[in-house]
Amino acid sequence: MMRWALWLLAGALLGGIVHLVTVLILPATATQDAYSRFSTMSEVNTVTPVPPPTPQNAVIPFMDPAFAAAVCRYDLSAGPIKLNVPVSIAYTSVSFYTRRGVAYYAINDRAAGRRAIELDLMTSAQRSNLPDDEEVTAADRLIVESPTSTGLIMVRALAPEAGLMPAVRNALNAARCRVDVKS
Question: In whole angstroms, how far apart are CA 30 and each of 23, 46, 102?
């Protein structure tokens, strides 16, 4: 009886180790991650609308049809990115992800407190090269440091009613993500 208990314990331990290793390695080996999916439909450093989800086809799994979405695949090797997203009717959020899908920053229209979400995205090295300007305070300029030089910026806006979806999509179409030549 004790022998069977040891075999069961060893099997459970081995199964747990295999499960843990698989869960940790699988995201790094996935070939159809979000960045790869968007690379075929969007240009680098450009905001591109995400097609609305249908029951048969969705670019991103589990997309909410009440939200309009847009994506910017960024590459900071040419310089910092200046992001400008107009606030939509009900709710707007901006989320930042590394190339491997790790979320590292998010902001919404209520936190921004303005008619547009404006920020600068740069690496730590690019931020350290910025001149120290005493006139510009943290309230004037929101700077987000990216842990990687490439990644995704997801912009989502809520349409509280189906009839408001065109207005929400127009707000997202006005979003800009481009290399900031001044910084």
Answer: 11, 25, 14
- The dotted CATH code for 34-179 is 2.60.40
Q: Where are the domains of the chain?
A: 1-30, 34-179
Residue-wise burial string across 123-161, b where 16 or more C-beta atoms lie within 10 A, e elsewhere: beebeeeeeeeeeeeeeeeeebbbeebebbbbbbbbbee
pTM given for the model: 0.80
- Order across the sheet with 116-122: list the strands: 143-145, 116-122, 81-86, 176-179
Instruction: Say how many CA atoms lie within 13 Å of 71 toward its Cβ.
Output: 20
Q: Cβ distance 124 to 145 under 8 Å?
A: yes
Structure tokens at 100: 């491997």
Q: Which residue from 124, 176, 120 is spatially nearest to 146, judged by alpha carbons?
A: 124
The pLDDT tens digits for 41-52 are 888 999 999 988
